[in-house]
Q: What sequence folds into this?
């Protein structure tokens, strides 16, 4: 067993579970994406204080959220990998976005400060392909002449679970690297060419913090909360940019939302001088025909409240709140798409 594997065996991980409020008939349940977990926790706490309605949210990854909503064990599923209109139709589901955020490469390299290291999309893909294996590889050094990079092996960390964050990350790598597209592709779960897997954004963050000379990818809120060292990325316009809310917003400005297509939208590798190249929205999945109409109504009340009252909380965590024009479109879709089993609209 090598040194890295021995270290990993000693690391314990926990899965996020948010429980706000005591159990009551109107409490709601959800499961899925770890990407939005920090903001959902803030929203749930404030919503509980104002309404006395609790939220139990299991931060288990987008794949788990999709499985749980399809098995009808939760009131809503959450995913960063949007389902296509065809997938939604086959499952009898509808989806809508909540916030926009950024997926950020994070590193643990001694002496390198947050935002100091610059990576192009090609070099990032080559690292996760195992083709660039040392931090002082000439291809990395060429873009970082003033950074002292060690002659050490790069320890890659990726997600081990079905993950919308991975979907966003691998979609980007597929857009900037033909080799990645041809050999690995874009999906919530891929056959990683190298590295070790951690469960959830929490797991990847934990591994990167503990493993020297490592690199992984997490939603930006996790990088901030854990004071992690993030990198600058070269965007589609050829500029090196930092992960920050204004740059996520610059990428999101290109979005053309369409309720009839389930708000399906990919925001990676967008044009714009300041656009962060690994930007993505996160989505909620609910059934169109609701067997538990009261629970569904409470779910919609929660997200309606979040759209109206949660923007500052989202922005404080460096997520990008949706524009009012989009949230109005989402509310309108609820009226026509989400109904009780007897055909009555749940959202008035």
A:
């Amino acid at each position: 067993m090598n040194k890295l594997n021995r270290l990993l065996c000693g690391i314990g991980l926990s899965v996020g579970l948010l429980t706000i409020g005591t159990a009551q008939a109107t409490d709601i349940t959800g499961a899925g994406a770890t990407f939005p977990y920090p903001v959902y926790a803030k929203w749930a706490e404030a919503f509980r204080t104002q309404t006395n309605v609790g939220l139990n949210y299991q931060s288990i990854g987008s794949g788990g959220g999709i499985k749980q909503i399809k098995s009808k064990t939760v009131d809503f599923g959450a995913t960063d990998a949007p389902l296509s209109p065809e997938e939604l139709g086959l499952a009898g589901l509808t989806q809508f976005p909540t916030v926009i955020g950024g997926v950020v490469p994070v590193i643990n390299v001694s002496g390198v400060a947050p935002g100091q290291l610059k990576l192009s999309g090609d070099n990032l893909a080559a690292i996760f392909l195992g083709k660039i294996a040392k931090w002082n590889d000439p291809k990395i050094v060429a873009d970082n002449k003033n950074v002292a990079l060690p002659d050490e092996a790069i320890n890659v960390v990726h997600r081990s679970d079905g993950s919308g964050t991975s979907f966003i990350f691998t979609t980007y790598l597929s857009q900037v690297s033909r080799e990645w597209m041809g050999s690995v592709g874009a999906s919530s779960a891929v056959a990683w060419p190298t590295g070790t897997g951690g469960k959830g954004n929490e797991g990847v963050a934990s591994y990167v913090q503990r493993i020297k000379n490592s690199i992984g990818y997490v939603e930006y809120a996790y990088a901030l909360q854990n004071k992690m060292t993030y990198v600058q990325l070269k965007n589609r316009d050829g500029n090196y940019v930092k992960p920050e809310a204004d740059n996520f917003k610059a990428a999101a400005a290109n979005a053309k939302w369409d309720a009839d297509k389930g708000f399906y939208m990919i925001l990676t590798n967008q044009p714009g001088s300041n656009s962060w190249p690994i930007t993505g929205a996160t989505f909620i999945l609910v059934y169109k025909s609701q067997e538990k109409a009261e629970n569904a109504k409470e779910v919609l009340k929660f997200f309606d409240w979040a759209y109206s009252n949660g923007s500052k909380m989202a922005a404080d965590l460096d997520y990008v709140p949706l524009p009012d024009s989009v949230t109005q479109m989402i509310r309108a879709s609820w009226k026509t798409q989400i109904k009780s089993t007897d055909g009555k609209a749940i959202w008035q």
User: Anything to note?
Assistant: The chain has two domains: 13-101+257-269+280-340, 103-252. The first strand starts at residue 16 and ends at 20. The longest helix spans residues 293-309. Confidence is low (pLDDT under 50) at residues 1-15, 21-25.
